[in-house]
């Protein structure tokens, strides 16, 4: 009897140990990549054409959020699922890059608006409803002299910030003018332009340093 329990205990220990090893080495992020896991109200796989375009653009903008983080200011967007070429996908499975274009409020140089572009990878949050924030370390930027050019930050989630037509002092209030999701392997992306932001939201989206 003791021998039986010993064998049973050894079997149980091996099973539990093996299961635990499998569980803790499984990529949870990969498990959550299933588009079926996204909430129904963010799932537009039943839409096509103009209806799909309007729904996904509204969803991107409705999820726009600015949060202060340790590394800087995080800018996030809404995430969604849709059908492309017959396959149901998450937005960040189809698109690799997020580009946000801002213009400084009331600031122009030689007749041209001051422009800031923030670009980073399209990565979705654990609950799939948000595109992970592009974190911009504005304090590091403000420590530099203003000028046209590019800042590249590689710590954490990499982000690139580009400036054009800057005045002698850093502008501190920026209005979102466009949102673009793109994939270098594909010719078509998703672009939300300035007039669509006004149409869908009815108010500007403002980023203040």
Task: Summarize the entry for a quick read.
This protein is an alpha+beta fold.
Total separate domains: 2
> So how many helices?
6
Q: State mean pLDDT (0 to 100 scale).
A: 84
Tell me the β content: 35-45%
Name the helicity range.
25-40%
Oligomer: single chain
Shape: globular
Unreliable spans: 1-31
Which descriptors apply to this entry?
2 domains; 12 strands; 209 residues; alpha+beta; seven-stranded antiparallel sheet; single chain
Would you kindly provide a written description of the structure presented here, covering whatever features stand out?
With 209 residues, this protein is of the alpha+beta class. It has two domains: 1-31; 35-208, no CATH class. 28% of the residues lie in helices and 37% in strands. Strands 5, 6, 8, 9, 10, 11 and 12 form a seven-stranded antiparallel β-sheet that branches. Helix 3 packs across helix 6 (194-201). The protein starts with a helix and ends with a strand. 22% of the residues are buried.
Strands, helices and their partners?
Elements: H1 2-25, H2 28-31, H3 49-62, E1 65-69, E2 72-78, E3 81-84, E4 87-90, H4 91-94, E5 97-109, E6 112-121, E7 130-136, H5 138-142, E8 149-153, E9 159-164, E10 173-182, E11 190-192, H6 194-201, E12 206-208
Antiparallel strand pairs: 1-2, 2-7, 3-4, 5-6, 5-10, 6-9, 8-9, 10-11, 10-12
